[in-house]
Amino acid sequence: MTISIEKPVPAIAEKTVDIQHTPFDADKIQAIVDKLWALKSNNTEAAPKISSYDEFAALVPTMNGSQYTELAQQAFKQHTEVPVLIGGSSGTTGPSKLILERTNTPGSRPSEDDIQLITELRMAGALNPGDVVVNLFMVGMYSLLHQGFNRILEACYCSVIPLGSLNTDHLHNQLTFMANAEVNVLVGTPGTLIQMANAVKDSGITLNIKRILFTGECMGEAKANVLKAIFPGVRIIGCYGLSECGFVAVEQFNGKYQVRDYAYFLEKSAQGRLLVTSLNPNLPTPVVRYDTGDQFNFISLANKIFLDNLDRADNSFNFIGNLIKCSTITTLASEFLAQKDVLIEVALDTDEQGRDNLVITLLVDGLSLAQCQTFEAQLCQLEDFREALDKRAGTVSVVCAPPQAATLSERNKHRTIVDRR
């Protein structure tokens, strides 16, 4: 049976709901907690018995990145009976972490979780049989995502061009090859997708892209508008997930991310941060109450739970002892330019006198020097910036550049903060 949905579903009233977690399944949680306790090298006590969410929250601590890394190293020591893919997280938001993923052995079939994910992507109209997809996720030791996404594409009966990244010396040949293959879907990080879109624009070659799937970072309206301008009529679909455990939620026609609550248990911490527990018993390294570092809202829609307003909880930088949020600058820039979701970059370095120099780049087409200077003057009226100027301990300047000039990390994600101090 072919499932293909390309038309938006009728609008249904939505509401933000004040809930702390998604539906709780004590049996599934107990199985994961048992595995976690058995794996901990320094834990000789039996796993706690969990019959309710309150017991789970009270008896099982949250997990941070360093704790996950220790657990993954312990799992690696015990992996000999089960073959695994060995890789790492990107290191974009912290030190790279060891990531283990079970391989498909001969005769094995997709897990129930994988089957459900494939079904959801088909039902959401994201991937259809016959699609020709360019996989732009980076290839290499620190990117299991490229290979993992190839598996998903193949299971959805898509044809795959496993590109990985564009080669600037062979751009025309690569794009011509894609055009001849009648590529209609792109998958990758927003940074890589923007790079691809601008390469297509500059080349004059036409790619009839119908859908774009992204993960790895927030897309934002500014980046989405660039993609829509270069690929008219394209539908952009987000897949929210973690390197440590896979895709947690998939964006639907309403722009919200539907939680895969049969495969993941999600909580909102007291600080409003997203905690994730994978319910997959075959995951080599258990992910239990893992702090993602993301903030969000729960949305209730047609008896289903969605994530909304997903963003990094801490996207800030230190300037002369003051912790400044990038969102503060973005909000001011949006108001100043009367544009939603202005793309910015923050660069910091130290001069010979030991002063911190802050350069804010507005990644917007067509800005004049006068506009940059006016916005710079507005920023310098804010106390956190004015303090540095008054003390002659730092400088603040605003420049502009086109969106395609955005700085990309080694993993082709937009690097909002470039700190060279």
UniProtKB/TrEMBL annotation:
Keyword Ligase: yes
Gene3D superfamilies for the chain: N-terminal domain of ligase-like (3.40.50.12780)
SUPFAM superfamilies: Acetyl-CoA synthetase-like
Molecular function terms from GO: ligase activity
Entry keyword Ligase: yes
Keywords (A to Z) from UniProt: Ligase
Protein name: Indoleacetate-lysine ligase
Organism: Pseudoalteromonas tunicata D2
